């Protein structure tokens, strides 16, 4: 399994010299299986460049949305495969109790906000509410579990044989908890991240920033490390960087968090373009910072 970061920023795209290293594009991750199946996790602005990572023989892509906040869907209209008649594109998103996925995506992908309707896209397009039960796409076995974040939001657990990763870019498991973490069975997201080889998790805030943002749906570096430890994750990749944090800020925040928490596993900050190879014969991902 290969995991490539195409968008690491949270909330809003933040291009500029001060974010060039960690990246300014919003959430998008490509997961490619040993048999060539391609999953795209979220459709933030990073998805625009993502087709450059597609092998020429790929005829199907599955886009798995964690939720429909704009930073996770704003790149969708600029995703090249949607305009390719030879391509099959499946978009999966969390179910809502009110409107189906197509209706909710159409709010953005239609005039006046966007010139093209979903129905006019030339690719073979299929939309799916993510099932409550586990499901398979190619060689991947996937489960999507509702997690703590405003609006219907899921975290994805993706397995290929014995190799497992989890993706939870927007997640506030510490909300309403006096001492975090609580017991495993009471912690939001635990079933998603249990024992994973690689955990991509929300680390938007410092402790002091979080004090003013409780309930906004995000985590601190310290909470993320504690969550990864509780879940027995083997590596933590910090994603959904706050738009106000420069590369220098992130270097400092990650170093301080590691020094304070002394995690038993590698912790790195997600940088746009970085690839993690997972599986029995993969090279261990290179820690950019930390142990
Ligand atoms: Zn977000
Ligand atoms: Zn969100």
Rg is: 18 Å
Uncertain segments are 285-291
Bound molecules: zinc ion
CATH architecture: 4-Layer Sandwich
The main β sheet shows up as: 7 strands, mixed
Structural class of the helix and strand makeup? alpha/beta
CATH topology category name: Metallo-beta-lactamase, Chain A
Our estimate of the beta-strand percent is 15-25%
Secondary-structure element order, N to C: EEEEEHEEEEEHEHHEHEE
List keywords for this structure.
seven-stranded mixed sheet, binds zinc ion, disordered C terminus, globular, 291 residues, 5 helices, Metallo-beta-lactamase, Chain A, alpha/beta
Question: What's this, in brief?
Answer:
14% of the residues lie in helices and 24% in strands. The protein has 291 residues and is α/β, with parallel strands linked by helices. The chain has one domain: Metallo-beta-lactamase, Chain A.
What is the secondary structure topology, with strand pairs?
Layout: E1 2-7, E2 28-32, E3 38-41, E4 60-64, E5 88-93, H1 101-106, E6 124-129, E7 135-137, E8 140-146, E9 154-160, E10 163-168, H2 190-193, E11 198-202, H3 207-211, H4 221-231, E12 236-239, H5 247-261, E13 267-269, E14 275-277
Parallel strand pairs: 3-4, 4-5, 5-6, 10-11, 11-12, 12-13
Antiparallel strand pairs: 1-2, 1-14, 2-3, 7-8, 8-9, 9-10
Bound molecules: zinc ion (ZN) (2 copies).
One zinc ion (ZN) binds at residues 10-11, 27, 69, 71-72, 169-170, 240.
């Amino acid at each position: 399994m290969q995991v490539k970061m195409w968008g690491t920023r949270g909330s809003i795209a933040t291009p500029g010299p001060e974010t060039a290293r960690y990246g300014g594009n919003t959430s998008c991750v490509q997961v490619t299986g040993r048999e060539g199946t391609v999953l795209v996790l979220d459709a933030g602005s990073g998805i625009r460049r993502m087709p450059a990572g597609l092998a020429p023989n790929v005829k199907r892509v599955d886009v798995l949305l964690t939720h429909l906040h704009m930073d996770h869907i704003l790149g969708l209209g600029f995703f090249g495969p949607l305009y390719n008649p030879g391509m099959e594109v499946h978009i999966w998103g969390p179910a809502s109790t009110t409107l189906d996925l197509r209706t909710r995506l159409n709010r953005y992908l239609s005039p006046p906000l966007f010139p093209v309707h979903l129905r006019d896209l030339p690719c073979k397009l299929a939309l799916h509410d993510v099932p409550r039960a586990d499901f398979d796409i190619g060689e991947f076995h996937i489960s999507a579990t509702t997690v703590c974040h405003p609006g219907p939001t899921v975290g994805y657990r993706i397995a290929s044989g014995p190799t497992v990763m989890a993706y939870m870019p927007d997640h506030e498991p510490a909300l309403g908890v006096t001492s975090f973490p609580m017991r495993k069975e009471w912690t939001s997201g635990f079933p998603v991240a249990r024992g994973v080889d690689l955990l991509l998790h929300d680390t938007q805030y410092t402790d002091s920033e979080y004090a003013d943002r409780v309930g906004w749906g995000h985590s601190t570096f310290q909470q993320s490390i504690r969550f990864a430890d509780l879940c027995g994750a083997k590596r933590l990749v910090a994603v959904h960087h706050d738009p106000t944090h420069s590369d220098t800020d992130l270097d400092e925040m990650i170093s301080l968090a590691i020094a304070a928490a002394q995690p038993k596993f590698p912790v790195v900050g997600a940088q746009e373009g970085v690839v993690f190879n997972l599986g029995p014969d993969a090279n261990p991902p290179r820690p950019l910072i930390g142990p």
